Amino acid sequence: MDNRAGIVCWASLIDGVLIEIFSKLDFDSLISVASVCHSWRCVAHYTESWDRVHFCHHERFVDNYIKETVAVDNQERLFRESKYMIRHVGAGARSIYVCRIADDTMVQMIADRCPSIESISLRYCNRNSPSALINIIQACKLLKFIDIKFCGAVNFCSPLSTLLIEEMGQSCPSLVGINLGCLQVTEEMAIAIGKFLPKLKWFNLNAATISCEVLCIILDSCTELDHVSVRGCR
Fold it and tell me: What is the pTM of this model?
């Protein structure tokens, strides 16, 4: 609008109206409006403005992080956006992607601030401990998809891996997709997957170490699988 009155009108909108508008923006647009003026910046930092922001739809999450049928987004960009978003979102956040250098503090922040997330990727996160991963699984009971490929907390002995799978099944009854790529899958883990995650629909084992016998245990137990990837498995 060209006249001064129009500009003042936009700047003077009540917070509730601005929140309703801002909550419909994507990440980049929400960052931009926060630089317009002081009042917009304040509203842009309200958790209500971020609750509906998703880095991508669940379908894209499944393609990129579970099925790996398309190229993933720039990891460093995802990490920067994730860190910024975790500090602003409230309980309504649905998808969180944390890449490469997440530590226990960030993982715990997700568990504390985002209990309603349905999708999470902790790929390449080598600084978080198994206990931190268990905490987030216990806190985020609505999880449907989880990507822990190359996750440092999972690169450990079979008994602890089996414990994690058991925790996923008990704490996250809606879990239907998981990426365990590059992990060594033992018979004990396969039995745990069949027992605690029988409703799996998407399962990625790309570049994992697994025998045909162990894979058959999983396939016989998880009868609802729609997608299984064993590309590059040893």
Answer: 0.76
